Amino acid sequence: MVALRHTFEQQLAAALPGVDITLERPKSGELGDLAFPCFRAAKQLGKNPAQLSQELAGSLAVEGATLVAAGPYLNLKLAPETRAKAVLGAILETPADRPYGSRPANGKRVIVEYSSPNIAKLFTIGHLRSTMIGHALAQTHQFLGYDVVRLNHLGDWGTQFGTLLAAYTRWAQDRNADLRLDFDWAEPAPEKRRTPLFRLFQLYVRFHADEESDPAMRDEARDWFKRLENNDPEARVLWKRFRELSLAEFQRIYDRLGVSFDTLEQGEAFYEDQLLPTMQRLEDAGLLVEGDKGARIVNLEDVGIATPCLVQKGDGTSIYATRDLAAALYRKKTFNFDRCLYVVGTDQVLHFQQIFAVLDKLDPWFKGRMLHTPFGMVKLPEGKMSTRKGNVIFLEDVLDEARERVAAIIEEKNPDLRDKAEVAEILGMGAVVFFDAMNDRVKPITFTWDRVIALDGDTGPYVQYAHARIMSVLRKAGGDWEARAQAGAPSGPVVPFPSMPLPPELSGVTAPEAQALLFELAGLPGAIAAVLEGCMATPLARQLVAVARSFSGYYTNCPILAPENAPEVRDARLALCVATARALRQGLYLMGIKAPEEM
Ligand code: ARG
Q1: Which atom of ligand 1 is nearest to the CA of 347?
Q2: 3-class DSSP state for residue 169?
Q3: Nearest C-alpha to atom 5 of ligand 1 is from which residue?
Q4: Residue among 111, 250, 348 whose CB has most ligand 1 atoms within 8 A, to mutate
């Protein structure tokens, strides 16, 4: 395929000197495997695109393929067996550590910063976006040859700890006991929510509610944060415990999601001792000026940002932005990265514009290396979620509900299934995570249970089902077939499969439905690369649906294990099954979704 592409490009370049030769993927495999859009070349030559494509089709020739003019496009179409050989060879014959669609190490380092929840708040469905988009970006970068550092900028510092300390000491503290979070609450928490973190969350919500009518409480909270910043031992001890409790709970959720970070120790508090030096550097560079009430700011008007970046408050304390500046400087020194991605919601667009602009002024090294990849907020039908007000949807509730819905379906349709509970968990997760990826990254999502947990249509379970169905065909086929599609333990983003020789005869997969499936499989590497271009998993998710859908056409129209099949027909068809199972499993894995063997 690579060789043919090269020949095609060379021929076009020779026929059209000085024209940019960019090939595309035709809309369907019926049209061909590669398309050259003639618009630009035709314009340059003062011709009509359709006429140019006709001329080229008549004058060029690529061995092993036909050239067809289709309106303004010149399509290259492989002979059916050539296509089968190219695609199956690329998927099946590759070594286990260099899977289909991956690329060799490129010597570039990327930091992906994602998830970054705030301590003492619960993980809501909103956090899923940053966590899973970030996970997919980290996985995909690594798959495509980047050295990836996975960071979590945990919100473990800031004025919200003042609120929490004030609330806790007001209502929950038993001074003789260790952190007491089993206190009686006017409104008892639901059974499964009687966790320490949920108690902290309730304290936080109650404080903000009461504060409305009692503004003095605000000073109380501010006071506590001051004590924390000034190393007051009582404040410190409590803060540390809050942090540990939260981390334990976050860790449990990350384990459930199959997500991990290089460290959870580089949250906001980690940069505490670097805040003064950071402010000093800005001062030395002559960037800090006096703002309102003794605050220190960096003006950004000259670079088109009207709002200055606040770096230091009037009382000398740092803010969120100061910690981000310190973090960026630390990351430069420690990781010497080529790119740093911040997977954070659209509500922080201005914040990152400011941070990046300040960094550019401070050190030109940062120019072009910093990238905010914003994502749309998850909204409830009645409006934005708000932790402060307590109207939120918890991520775990969503995952549990999804699992229960799947379990009910399994109970009804396939009660004898092995590992029922595990399959229900995998499919439930697949539904939720895939739903998220199918949504445009930047548009807001309105949360409704039925949409998020949908099991039919373009969903995770649909793709997962295709995988399980293939595995069942391979099991029935006997011999080594199942083993060929069974993965070893993943290493980084790679799901390793043993390399397997192609069947010598591929006439079994020349039918249109088999060709359509091969065409969609051929689209996967491009879709994986598009994940990096758009910084979202959507192109990969869509392509996986296209593969699953065309598998279904193949399965219906090309009997795989029919007794009348000649052995070479059966082998070629099974090989296509193995290739599809591998591609689906690897693709889902990049998104953080598992592929069941059976369902
Ligand atoms: N903790 C913040 C939040 O929950 C997100 C942090 C984003 N990352 C950063 N480097 N500022 O809103």
Answers
A1: 12
A2: helix
A3: 116
A4: 348
- The two three-digit tokens of residue 66, written as one number: 């036909």
Burial of 583 (0-12, 13-18, 19+ CB in 10 A): buried
d(CA 435, CA 537): 11
Report how far apart the first and last C-alpha atoms of the chain are (Å, whole number). Answer: 35
Query: 464: how many CB neighbours lie within 10 A of its CB?
Result: 28
DSSP 118-150: BTTS--BHHHHHHHHHHHHHHHHHHHTT-EEEE
Q: Which DSSP symbol is given to 456?
A: S
Pocket test for ligand 1, best of 344, 371, 385 (most atoms within 8 A of CB): 344
Distance CA 508, CA 505 (A): 8
Output the residue whose Cα is nearest ligand 1's atom 9: 153
pLDDT in the model for residue 451: 81
Distance of CA 382 to the CA centre of its chain: 27
Answer yes or no: pTM beyond 0.90. yes
Q: From atom 4 of ligand 1, which residue's Cα is the shortest distance away?
A: 117
CA of 143 to the centre of ligand 1 (A): 26
Neighbours of 595 (CB within 10 A): 27
Residue nearest to atom 11 of ligand 1 (CA): 324
CB 353 within 8 A of CB 305: yes
Identify the residue whose C-alpha is closest to ligand 1 atom 6.
116
The two structure tokens encoding residue 195: 């966790």
Hey, where are the domains in the chain? 2-78
| Residues with a CB atom less than 6 Å from ligand 1 | 113, 116-118, 153, 155, 324, 342, 344
Query: Each residue of 15-55: pLDDT tens digit?
Result: 999 888 999 999 999 999 999 999 999 999 899 999 999 99
Q: Categorize the per-residue pLDDT at 453 as very low, low, confident or very high, splitting at 50, 70 and 90.
A: confident
The reply to whether CATH 3.40.50.410 applies to domain 2-78 is no
pLDDT at 182: 52
Sequential DSSP letters for 542-557 = HHHHHHHHHHHHHHHH
Rounded to the nearest angstrom, the distance between the alpha carbon of 427 and the centre of ligand 1 is 29
The pairing of beta strand 34-37 with beta strand 73-78: antiparallel
With beta carbons less than 8 A apart as the criterion, state whether 77 and 68 touch: yes
Q: Of all protein residues, whose CA lies closest to atom 8 belonging to ligand 1?
A: 153
Q: 535 C-alpha to center of ligand 1: Å?
A: 18
